[in-house]
Amino acid sequence: MQIKKYAPDKSGLAYSVGVTLDRFIKIKQEDFPFASGELSQLLRDIALAAKIVNRETNRAGLANIGGAFGHTNVQGEEQQKLDVIANIRFMRALSKGGEVCAIVSEEDDEVIDLQNKSGKYVVAIDPLDGSSNIDVNISIGTIFSIFRRVTPVGSPVQLEDVMQPGANQVASGYVLYGSSTMMVYTTGHGVNGFTYEPSLGEFFLSHPDMKAPQDGKIYSINEGTYNHFDDGLKAYIEDCKRKEYSARYIGSLVADFHRNLLKGGIYIYPATSKAPNGKLRLLYEANALAFIAEQAGAKATDGQQRIMEIMPSSLHQRTPLYIGSTVMVDEVEKFQSKSMAPAST
């Protein structure tokens, strides 16, 4: 029997398909040795649910699953059919995986105890952000945070397992359902993005070691509420216009954040006179994106304090959010601090 060593084919026919998400996670397992494989499996469970949600969003117009569901969630927001579908899919994937003991979801009033006795992790998730955009075919997304529980494994889930600051996250990420579907995540060792290849049913590494530009020329904010902004923010917006920055606002947090992460820019959802605590949720929106932003070299604050240092006081706590290129976040904070400074006499 003749034997020869394998040598990769370097011809034009043998182009590389790429590194799959599953293989990448296995390679990076050494980044979190304390997890013994559970965190890796948890990320795979999220990726599986994301594939199913991707399929559902792509056929929403044909399967009559677009539009409103007829109920409101705990935020008082009208649930869309796909909100409910996505929540079911992620709940099912996370419960069957066995690594998660509890879930906080935008779509549920209370903490969901999964009754997984060996579960070491708590997941906070917005199953489908921007779902009202489905009917007009605009990008939407999923946002998730992962925490290690602080009470002993096997004991009943406690509030302190859930109410943790963002600095305690062990992983976070988002899935963007757009012209292509992408999953972007961090475990505290940089940020990596994976693009879904539907013919193979796999996520492939497409954006390794993502870094946000330190400065940018894009600002993303709903200027329809301009009259309710504080004077400092109004001054910053006027300065952006004077500099001829580009105003880009999709109304889908994941899509706006993703664009600014790649191109440089700032996303702002401020406190206003109508919403003094802001609108975005701390546990499953702001924390997750703040972790990614910082790992990519960007910045996230509530206008005064680092997002990941805020200690949550309620499950669905809201917060203002200033997130994006570091120079731009620093600049808007300067404008606001000037407006709050006492007048000289």
From TrEMBL:
Assigned keywords, A-Z: Carbohydrate metabolism, Cytoplasm, Hydrolase, Magnesium, Metal-binding
DNA-binding: is it a keyword of this entry? no
What reaction does this enzyme carry out catalytically? Answer: beta-D-fructose 1,6-bisphosphate + H2O = beta-D-fructose 6-phosphate + phosphate
List, alphabetically, the InterPro entries matched: FBPase_C_dom, FBPase_class-1, FBPase_N, FBPtase
**Pfam families (alphabetical):** FBPase, FBPase_C
UniProt entry tagged with the keyword Protein biosynthesis: no
Q: Could you list the residue ranges that cross the membrane? A: none
Q: Domain of life, per the record? A: Bacteria
Per UniProt, Mg(2+) 2 binds at 126, 129, 285
What does the record's cofactor remark say about binding? Binds 2 magnesium ions per subunit.
Subunit-structure text: Homotetramer.
What is the protein's given name? Answer: Fructose-1,6-bisphosphatase class 1
At the highest ranks, the source species' classification is: Bacteria, Pseudomonadati, Bacteroidota, Cytophagia, Cytophagales
Q: Which gene encodes it?
A: fbp
